[in-house]
Every structure is written in structure tokens, then in C-alpha cells.
UniProtKB/TrEMBL annotation:
It comes from Mucilaginibacter psychrotolerans. Gene3D superfamilies: 3.40.50.12370. Belongs to the universal stress protein A family. This is Universal stress protein. InterPro entries: Universal_stress_UspA, UspA. It comes from the Bacteria. Residues 2-143 form the UspA domain.
Amino acid sequence: MEKILVTTDQSTNSKAAIRFAIKLAKLRKAELIILHVYHLLKPFTWTEHAFAEYGDSFREKTTEELSSFIAGIYHDIDEPEINHQLALVSNIDVVDGVIDYAGKHNCSYICISTRGAGALTKMFGTHTAKLISSSPVPVLCIPSGYHLKELKHVLYASDMTDYENELKKVVDFARPIHATVEMMHIAYPSEFAFDKELVEATLQKKTDYKVTILNPQRDITNALLQDIDHAVKISKPSVLVLFTHQSRSMFEKLFFPSNAEEYSFYGKIPLLTFNKNKASKS
């Protein structure tokens, strides 16, 4: 059975990702794993036995709190509980804990809430940005203020460098939930125009799924993200899909954040990101 992982720190902000993950797991008939990553510091004066007992007590108490927290979310969305499990993992780094768990348990997607970040936090990384830039598992970033809607339309923003491989992953996400797929390429003035109907027919043949084309023109007076945002307003997708490079140097990551990382800070719709390097090898 497919597994969908959602992270929580039991905060109000994390509820949006859990609500989304519940809906997605139900649509995909997947198992839902709700993960809490924690780290306990051992006081110097404690014995190993005392610390182990404290750890057991902490995990038991946290599991009870987490169960109550999740039950409250189910109550709020008026949905019966689906097949899910609670997982607690000890790791000094939250992102490492999430990625390690997702890899060991063959999770198909990781869901996380995002609430935006200031300039300094953006530069040095939030959990969301770190997941996007390092996770081999696709990441779904859910704005903390997002209100649950029907998942009926997926917009895939493509730079056309590896669109066939990337589109297969987009269709794999959309097909089980019966969502429509639209591929967007923002064209520069110097690019050749293509036959929309011919391209759509070709893509449907290659993917065995209907894919429509959105081909807005690049406005060089805008930042690229402004053009993406304008296209999103036209398309009105349920989910925006971006593929991000993870092979950049630390200098590039600090001073030239990827479009996916930047968009996750102010986007108002769920953002699904894939590792572009991994997609090209599949």
C-alpha cells in the first residue's frame, strides 16, 4: 500500500498539512503516517537508566497528546478516521529525521505545513525549504492558512528541459485522484511558438492521460515568480507542481534560492516539489 507521510509539531500551523494529507490518503487509498520528530537532551547528572525511563515516559505522553491532537482534526473536518499510524522519531535535526524515516518506510510523498518566512530565515533555511532542497521524496508544502478544497486540477510548471520524464511523475500524482493536468511553459519572446493541439495530442499519447497546455509569454519586466503567479491566477489549480535542482553549491543556495523554495514562502495553494535530478534519472 502506498504511504503518505505528514509531519507535525502539534502546532496550529501544522494542522493544514494534516488535513490535506488525510484527504490525499483517502483519495489515493494510501496509508497515512503522522510523524513527530523530537530530540531529548540527557542531563549530565542522570544515569542511563533514569534517562531511558524519562524517554519512555516522554514518548508515552507525547503519543497520547498526538492522538488527541489528530482526533481533534478529524472532528473539525467531520471525517471518519482513515487507516493511519503515529510515529515518533528521535533526531537532533528535524529534516534529517523526516527524510530518513520517509526513505526507510518507502513513503511516496511528504506533507508539511508552511507559514512563510522572513529574509534571514529564508537564507538559512526553514524546515520546508530544507526539505525541498534535499529530500529525494516529493514534498507537498501546504500553506498554514489553506482551507481544504477539492483536488481537481494540477498545474505543472515546466522549463521544457526534461518535461517527458517530469510529466510522468505529475500524471502519477494526478491519475489516482482523477485530477486534470495542465502543463505550463512561460515562453520568452525569442522562443518559437508551437502548435497547441498537436502538442496536447502528443502528450496524451505519451502519458495515456489528457494534458492541456498553458503557454503564457514571459514579461521580462517581472520576476519569473510574478509570471508564475499570474499564470496560477489564470489556471486556478488545486496543486502547483515544480521541479527543483538539488545539485547547486551552498553559495547558489544562499544567494539564488530556487523558484520552488521561494514560492513555498508566499504561495496560497499547495505546492508539490520533485527532485529534478532524480526525475531525469528515472
